[in-house]
Amino acid sequence: MAEHNTNNASEALLLKRISRQEEILNQLALRSQALEYENSRLRLLLYNSWLNKGNIPPEEVDKYELLPMYLEDVMAILQQPVELFNFNTRVLLTFRALDIRTIKDLLFEIKEYKMYHFKCYRSFGQKSLQNVFDILRENGFIDKYYKSYLFEFV
């Protein structure tokens, strides 16, 4: 009978240790997500710095001031409908056919599929492709090397 009580005590101790380790793992997971978010914020800050030729005031570098502002700005950009931009009619009809409604959808198509679905679409040729990239470049969503800080948020 004494052995049975000892086993229950050691089992309870083991369960307590396991729950503590699970708590630690959960905390580590949350911290890694926060670091991933901070890396995205830093990339955005570096891209904006490069875009503005380094003219970002030092007070903007403070992460506690930038964090909410950047998230709101990025989400506002990504949620804009593609109809607000000056794409030609053929491109807009292709967007509608491929169910691309927002800038986020468009950037996802560019990032993940390398515009494969556009190229397969019958009425979408080289001029239409160039129109998409020109409009995105004019609005600052991509640079001349077809890179974008918004790809990290898509």
Describe it.
The protein is mostly helical. It has two domains: 64 residues; 60 residues. The radius of gyration is 24 Å and the shape is elongated.
List keywords for this structure.
154 residues, mainly alpha, 2 domains
Average pLDDT score: 76
Question: Poorly predicted ranges (pLDDT <50, ≥5 residues)?
Answer: none
- Structural class, from helix and strand content? mainly alpha
Number of domains: 2
Question: Strand share of the residues?
Answer: under 5%
Question: In DSSP terms, counting alpha (H) and pi (I) runs of 4 or more, how many helices?
Answer: 6
Whole-Å distance between the termini? Answer: 61 Å
Number of DSSP E strands = 0
C-alpha Rg (nearest Å): 24 Å
Query: What does the main sheet amount to?
Result: none
Helix content: 55-70%
Order of helices and strands: HHHHHH
What spatial form do the alpha-carbon principal axes imply? elongated
Protein name: RNA polymerase alpha subunit C-terminal domain-containing protein
Précis, in short:
The chain is built from six helices and no strands. It is mostly helical. This is RNA polymerase alpha subunit C-terminal domain-containing protein.
Helices and strands in order, then pairings?
Layout: H1 2-51, H2 63-78, H3 89-97, H4 103-113, H5 116-120, H6 126-138
Protein name: RNA polymerase alpha subunit C-terminal domain-containing protein
Organism: Parabacteroides gordonii MS-1 = DSM 23371
